[in-house]
Specification:
Helix content is 36%, strand content 18%. The longest helix has 11 residues. It is built from 4 helices and 3 strands, in the order βααββαα.
Amino acid sequence: MAQALVSIRELKSRLSHYLRLTRKGESVVITDHGVPIGRIVPMGQDRAGQDLGARLAAMRDTGLAQWSGQKLSRRKPVAKLLGRKTVAQLLVDDRE
């Protein structure tokens, strides 16, 4: 999937050009001071049309995600519950 990087200022001044690129099937990554903040994608290539692997690959390609290829290790809980209620039950009680 081809991608064009464009700053907000350039996108505003040449929006029609970047929309034509999108119509041709190219994604446009919008940056703010060099940091990717959004993407314009052709219809049919949005998140709903991609599997998880393709979405993660796209995030890695744009620098939004990094992965060492290893599974995450288990971590100890930050807090312990007192009593027999679950976190979900406590949350429901708090909302009522």
